[in-house]
Amino acid sequence: MFVFSLAVLSLGSLVVSRSVASDIRRSFVPPGPGDSRSPCPLLNALANENIMPHTGQNIPIALLNQTMREVLNLGADLTDALVGGAQQFADDNGTINLHDLATHNVLEHDASLVHDDAAPGAVYAPTDTNKAKVAAVSGLSTDGVGLTARDLAHARVIAEETSLPLPDNLAFAANVEAALALTVIGDGTTVDLAAFGDLFGENKLPEGWVKPTEPITLDVVVGIASQVAAAKEEFESI
Ligand SMILES: *[C@@H]1O[C@H](CO)[C@@H](O)[C@H](O)[C@H]1NC(C)=O
Ligand SMILES: *[C@@H]1O[C@H](CO)[C@@H](O)[C@H](O)[C@H]1NC(C)=O
């Protein structure tokens, strides 16, 4: 489960810098019919880029852990929180299929920015990207160049208005997802629309992406998620 605590707020340096060329090997191939994919654009991208097994099947938790740390440069605390969420789906041999993460209302939730809601009574939510939703979120960019925490909050409010209310933990998880986008493929403040389109629209790592120079910590992500939550309240009060 997501085990973030709002008590660990820290609004220190939120800037994510990337100055060093990445040495990761990527080769993007869209998923084939038998490939297992999740509702998480980032995990799908890691499989599509052949950084994790392209089938998306029998992925060792230990590999997920190592990939988040070494490829994405997520901090140890953030990695543990995210891997801990995935771990509940692990088999006895410690592996998951990406599609396990589509189990409705465990980690996956309605009111996704780019997926349709789960059908009533369905065990699994859809993992296909709704391209119209990707375009609609991009259209909320205030400056037409990138999406800020405030723009993503706007998108979340619109998504949540048209779905059943989210359980509190999943509403918070959704804010964390926006914060992950802002840090993993953004600079902590903004995600370029092209990068957003690559990751959320195509499930590929953005063109020219390199990993952050400093690990992305749980504190930073929770701090940005709290900015998203605060901006949502502003939009909801309009
Ligand atoms: C991830 O790997 C680190 C380093 O090997 C380890 O200390 C940690 O417990 C692992 N986390 C999970 C959730 O498996
Ligand atoms: C793990 O278990 C699943 C079924 O429970 C099996 O399909 C898979 O091949 C196993 N993976 C490994 C690495 O042993």
TrEMBL record:
Residues 24-223 form the Heme haloperoxidase family profile domain. The keyword Oxidoreductase applies. It comes from Exidia glandulosa HHB12029. The keyword Transmembrane does not apply. It holds the Pfam family Peroxidase_2. Residues 1-21 form the signal peptide. Keywords: Heme, Iron, Metal-binding, Oxidoreductase, Peroxidase, Signal. Its cofactor is heme b. GO terms for molecular function: metal ion binding; peroxidase activity. It comes from the Eukaryota. PROSITE patterns: HEME_HALOPEROXIDASE. This is Cloroperoxidase. Belongs to the chloroperoxidase family.
